[in-house]
Design brief:
The protein has helices spanning about 30-40, 40-45, 55, 65-75, 120-135, 150-160, 195-200, and strands at about 10-15, 15-25, 80-85, 90-100, 105-115, 140-145, 165-175, 180-190, 205-209. It is of the alpha+beta class. It has a nine-stranded mixed β-sheet, sandwiched between helices. It is globular. The protein binds acetyl coenzyme *A (ACO). The site of acetyl coenzyme *A has 22 residues, from helix 2, strand 5, helix 5, strand 6 and helix 6.
Length: about 210
């Protein structure tokens, strides 16, 4: 058993609706496949290159294997693979990965939100919930993220929750078929005067409940 897993987080209310996080599960297959295939153009420019065509990779039949391997990593304390729900339905994913303990106590965080649910604060709220969980129950000291310089929506989300830009990682990650530069952002627990969610609420970007 690892601290902070499994967990249900939220709700936080934003203009789009009520945002909660919960562990991924096998019956997410249909929603995952439908949104991922429908939103290929929205997602593919920003996501790690995978093996084979997009539709084949996101076929409903691939979810059980993917879900099981992510949940196995979660049980080993290396990852927290969560679904973002908007008003109780699947609208995206938030993952805390490469959880390293010992003297580092660090991880990365990443997310996606379906195109139709975008623009209403969902990713910002989900990231706040994920960060507070990572720095709280999971016991992390540092959380980092990487984002393509031209992903302005994601950079806005990272800025809203208080990430610091730390530098440019040249040719860092194979995304959409090429080695792409990424901006590295980071946050350590000392930078939080209270919680990230509290900061969002005080900034008028979200409400409790
Ligand atoms: N230029 C500048 N700002 C933009 C643009 C744009 N083209 N598009 C949106 N924004 C701003 C919005 O105005 C908003 O800021 P505001 O609240 O100050 O108005 C912000 O970006 C978006 O905030 P949210 O509404 O909280 O985010 P949303 O729920 O729309 O999700 C996300 C954003 C996650 C980037 C979504 O569009 C997505 O899934 N994109 C594809 C996959 C992706 O890029 N994932 C992130 C990879 S990087 C990482 O994981 C660390």
């Amino acid at each position: 058993v690892h601290p902070g897993w499994p967990a249900r987080l939220g709700p936080l209310t934003v203009p789009a609706g009520r945002v909660t996080l919960r562990p991924i599960r096998l019956r997410d297959a249909a929603a995952w496949s439908r949104l991922r295939i429908r939103d290929e153009d929205h997602l593919r420019p920003w996501e790690p290159t995978g093996e084979g065509p997009w539709d084949a990779r996101h076929h409903i039949g691939n979810w059980p294997g993917l879900c099981s391997s992510l949940r196995a990593e979660a049980r080993r304390g290396r990852m927290l693979p969560m679904v973002i729900e908007l008003d109780g339905r699947f609208c995206g994913q938030l993952t805390i990965g490469n959880v390293v303990r010992g003297a580092l106590r660090s991880a990365w965080i990443g997310y996606w939100v379906s195109k139709e649910d975008g623009g209403g604060g969902v990713a910002t709220a989900a990231l706040a919930l994920g960060l507070d969980h990572g720095f709280g129950p999971v016991g992390l000291h540092r959380i980092e993220a990487t984002v393509r310089p031209d992903n302005l929506a994601s950079r806005a989300v990272l800025r809203h929750v208080g990430f610091r830009e730390e530098g440019l990682l040249e040719r860092y990650l194979d995304v959409d078929g090429e080695w792409r530069d990424h901006v590295l952002v980071g946050m350590t627990v000392e930078e939080l005067e209270s919680t990230v969610a509290d900061r969002l609420v005080r900034a008028g970007r979200a409400a409790w409940g």
